[in-house]
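explain this.
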Amino acid sequence: MSSISEEYLGAVIRKIAAVNHILHWSYDQVKFENIAQNYFGVLIPIVLSGKRRGKDVKYSLVLKLAPTNEQYRVSGAVTVMFVREVYMYSVVLRKYGEIQEGLPKTSQYIIPRCYFVHEEYCKEAIALQDMCAAGYKPYTHEMFLDLSHTLLSLKSLAKLHAFSFILKNKNQELYEEIAQTCIPLTEHTNLRYMEIMRDRLDQALKTFDRTLYIPLLFKLRLNCAEFFYAAGHSVQNSCLCHGDIWKENILFKYEGNKVVSACIIDYQTARISSPAYDVMYLIISSTNTKLRNKYLHQLLDIYFRTFEMILKELGLESKEIYSRQMFDKDLKVVSPACVIAANTALWLSNGLQEVGHVRSKNVLNTKEEKAMALDTYKGIVKAIMDDLSRFGYLSLADDNP
């Protein structure tokens, strides 16, 4: 990932200060060698201090900056993702904030405040409220979420989907504009993404060679584009979804040792899809097989009850828009695409992607480390396929999933 110079960083902060009418400003940041990076940009936490309307102010911000070197922009993915996230914060989430005014606090969707966006090519920037400074933390102590964190994540996701349906039904003009920007994921709209998905399925086919999972993996590989198309077009209804909702894109707030709130972040892949895609993807990517087998029905119930409640509070009935029966049907339609995406994410997060523009953050140095990582990946993906087969969402046999 390209580095960000002090000069460039200062120029970005100068713009943020000007837009927010902050005078006599200064900023503190973590040391450059400690800057966190995500797969499609650089994250820089800063504290911006100064005067606004004669009063001392201090803002804890996270700057999300696109790589300025064009060599990292070859595929076009970074550009598309920043355009989408800028749009989400400057238009969509701002509108959601207006929609939820007057709702009880427990019904509100947590939205980081956005202080600045810039869309110029190779200079894209977003300045967001640092939710960690507001008491939110990533879930880092275990590989998978426990029950309480999963339930809160699904409740938050249900609010996101409900607000989308509210907008779709009460402001069709804006929703149509959103649908033109946050387009469904298909081979036509993102060929590079599909190529990556198929490549990681090739890796899975090698890993699971001579096992009972080969027929399913082969069908997923052969029909990859069709399965993603179905998740956006062959469903009972669709709305604006997150598109990449797993534990790495959720922050949590605690009171004592109890988790009390979830904040969903990173909207680069927001797109029109079935809500069931987000729900199923979150569950299979962020929980272990023990939790899924014991609580899957409870997780789906909590999600849908929250979705139903938010719609009702804002004057809509789920049975007229997106009923539980529709949701249950869509879960079966989207499951193949969810498995394909989870396979890619797990290959990456386990340190197995060593080449390409998007590489694993985890660097594996020895053969032993790589073998252990491969075994971990294989065990997780196997459990996902087993569980979805057991619950009737996929088939391991030689018929269609």
Summary: Residues 324-349 form the longest helix (26 residues).
